[in-house]
Amino acid sequence: MTAASSAAGVDAADISPRGRRLSFSAGLTNWTQNVRAGEIGSLPVALGLAVIAFIFQIQNDRFLSSQNLTNLLVQMAAVATISTGVVFVLLLGEIDLSVGAMSGVAGITAARLLIPDGNQVNVVIALAVAGAIALAVGATHGFFVAKLGVPSLIVTLATLFIGQGVILAIAGQQGLIRIQDKTIIGIANVFLTDGWGWLLAAAMVLGYAALVISADRTTLAQGLTAQSTASMLAKISLVAVMAFGTVAITNSDRGFPLVAVILAVMIIFWTFVAERTRFGRHLYAVGGNAEAANRAGINVDRIRIAGFMIASFMAAAGGIVLASRLRSVDNSAGGGNLLLNAIAAAVIGGTSLFGGRGRISSAVQGALVIASVESGMGLLGWPSDRKFIVTGAILLLAVTIDTLSRRTRQTQGRA
Amino acid sequence: MAEVPLLEARGVSKRFGAVQALYNVDLTLHPGEVLGLVGDNGAGKSTLIKAIAGTYHPDEGEFFFEGRPVRIRSPRDSADLGIEVVYQDLALCDNLTVVQNMFLGREEVNRFHALSEAHMQRRAEETMESLAVTTLSSVKQTVARLSGGQRQSVAVAKAVMWNSKAVILDEPTAALGVAQTRQVLDLVRRLADHGLGVIVISHNLHDLFEVVDRFLVLRLGQSVARFDRDKTSQQEVVEAITAGTLSHVPGQSELEEVVTQ
User: Fold this and answer.
1) Which of B107, B97, B142, B103 is nearest to A277 (CA)?
2) Any residues with CB less than 8 A from the CB of A401 and at least 6 apart, and which?
3) Domain positions in chain A
4) Among A144, A302, B9, B178, which is most exposed with the fewest C-beta within 10 angstroms?
5) Alpha carbon distance A90, A364 (integer Å)
């Protein structure tokens, strides 16, 4: 902060020995300025979810029931997991069309290895094989895109076809493999007891508060301008309301789903990687301006390859989650609208198709929007035709918002 | 100037196939001075800069840094010596913040391998402060939101924050308006006041006359004239750019004497 700008926003009563605090109102002003400049963050998703909930709730009051909301969490998990990986390739300014097929290959591979015919392997080995295949596929994508310069659209379209072929081959004559392994089934079908649910919410809030406070102390220790105490409290309260609210809702039904815990852990881990590590920073840099990244000494090819590997790996993880929920894998696994939903979720959540902008959490946010709309339309007994049309309209809306906010950012830059 | 030059290039020649891009060029840069490198399009300004930056390998010539002979074989070598180049396209990531751009590729991490954001921000702010860049309201805003002059300032700050001793600016004011040009010229002057050697390439003699101490004029790949800013005029510099006497006429053998002043 320069003297000129901080003078306007520093709350005189709140100045600590070394650093300074921004007043709550000044923080709010900064935020509104950012929004106007096109840095809209999660705002459209929050508004969209409110509108969706309102519309479906007045049509059918079961929409906001604890049973339906718990179902939502379980239903969105697979798409959200796959979409997390999609965010990484979108941040690079690339695309991966094979994530649906990859999830199917992983699901059917694990299912095939776990058929209790006397040759079955340990579940850990089955999962490791599926993961290793995914990493190899991702590395192959990265090699073709980064080293040979083949467009990712075409490389991953090719592996989409190959993946579908592999799924058909493994599914064999019956075309369906039932899953009997308790561990796999447990992923999407175990719910925490009430006590564990509350404990989890408390741990979540405490962990978040600890992060916010330690970041605040570092900021002040460096003599920088920190956010106001009120804005810190507001953020922690928001997380507390969401965590305890979700647990309260799910506890009045079957309990907090285990798969949502797994999803939360994955999101926190990948958010750390994307936003708090050098690799993550370089990923954004490559997506924003690959030439600048290259001149800064970043190994651009290596970052691209790693991004594709993460995408394929998370697709495989999503495939396992889906297999667990359906308790079987058939020859249409990874087909249908799974791929489109996974990409749409990332974009609806606010990750830009143009590279370099977006957050890992956009995968969950977008998946929640898509699952809500599907669940709502299911409750109203709408036929599939209308579901597709509505999902398409929402996607178009999301991409338009992305494009328009991008344009706003650019005009601001020319000021 | 009596002191040891910061950077000295002697007899630099570079040929691309049939084209003699540089012929026997000498360049001297002292600490604390701004050298204007001027010449018409194709005079060899960029080639000379890229030779100093290690992007091109000259066919002949020697480099001296602080009096010691040095070999510059790659951009890494020149960066290690403390030579930074700010190219015309600036090489900034629009989607990253000012701090993130300044530390790109050299991020600081703590013992958990997490980025030390606060410490990097403080160092960025200190650098901006020491260069008296006051046009930036926050180093935490994305570069996409900055004006051309602010971007140039960020690119320069990024170059000088790594203990660099010489900074080369390629057309720093080419795309800027009047007020922003002013900001950048002031910044260039401050770099020299901090003891750095600065080379500025520009077509705009009017801007250069405000900021440089000396001129080096290139014409058809040769150094044809050197001027002190205080002892010359724009007209004299223009004449050297367009009609400076060549020591070596391209396509002919070396007939003439060296006639630079």
Assistant:
1) B107
2) A40, A44
3) 42-190+257-408, 191-256
4) B178
5) 15
Q: Which residue has the tokens 């602080």?
A: B66
CA distance A1 to chain B (A): 5
A42-190+257-408 CATH pick, 1.10.3470, 3.40.630, 1.20.1050, 1.10.3680: 1.10.3470
Q: What is the pLDDT of residues A47-75, one digit of tens each?
A: 888 999 999 999 999 999 999 999 999 99
* pLDDT, tens digit, 9 for 90 and up, residues A80-129: 999 999 999 999 999 999 999 999 999 999 999 999 988 889 999 999 99
All domains in chain B, ordered by first residue: 7-89+148-243 (3.40.50.300)
DSSP codes joined into one string, A251-266: HTTT--BHHHHHHHHH
pLDDT in tens, A9-35: 333 333 334 567 888 888 888 888 877
* Number of C-beta neighbours around residue A176 at 10 A: 15
Single out the residue of B124, B127, B97, B99 nearest to residue B187, CA to CA.
B127
Contact (CB, 8 A) for A313 and A136 = no
**Smallest Cα–Cα separation from A102: which of A60, A146, A157?**
A157
Closest CB from B105, B109, B137 relative to A296: B105
A370 exposed, middle or buried (CB, 10 Å; 0-12, 13-18, 19+)?
Answer: buried
Mean pLDDT value across residues B192-219: 92
B105 to chain A: closest CA residue: A296
State the average pLDDT for chain A.
89
For every residue of B202-258, DSSP letters joined together read: -S-HHHHHHH-SEEEEEETTEEEEEEEGGG--HHHHHHHHHHPPPSS-TTS---SPP
A153-167 residues labelled b (16+ CB within 10 A) or e (exposed)? eebbeebbeebbebb
Q: Which chain A residue's Cα is nearest to B112?
A: A277
- pLDDT surpassing 80 at residue A250: yes
ipTM: 0.85
CB pairs under 8 A between A and B: 102
Strands B222-228 and B68-70 turn out to be unpaired
| b (16+ CB within 10 A) / e for B21-31 | bbbbbebbbbb
- Out of A1, A221, A291, the one facing B91 most closely (by C-beta) is A291
Contact list, A277 vs chain B (CB under 8 Å): 109, 113-115
Q: Tell me the nearest-neighbour CA distance from A233 into chain B, angstroms.
A: 20
Q: Mark which residues 223-282 of A lie under 8 Å from B by CB.
A: 223-224, 272, 276-278, 281-282
B window 137-176, beta carbon within 8 A of A: 137-138, 142-147
Distance of CA A196 to the CA centre of its chain: 24
Element (H, E) at A223: none
The answer to whether the Cβ–Cβ distance between B138 and A282 falls below 8 Å is no
For residues A235 and A148, give the distance between their C-alpha atoms in angstroms, rounded to a whole number: 46
d(C-alpha A89, C-alpha A260), whole Å: 23
Cα separations in angstroms, A48 against A31, A272, A365, A386: 20, 26, 10, 19
Q: Which residues of A touch B53 (CB under 8 A)?
A: none
Amino acid identity, position A191: F
Any A CB within 8 A of B111 CB: no
How close, in Å, is residue A415 to chain B by CA atoms?
A: 6
Q: Are strands B68-70 and B60-65 parallel, antiparallel or unpaired?
A: antiparallel
- Mean pLDDT of the region B1-12: 84
Q: Are A6 and A373 in contact (CB under 8 A)?
A: no
Cβ of B115 within 8 Å of Cβ of A221? The answer is no
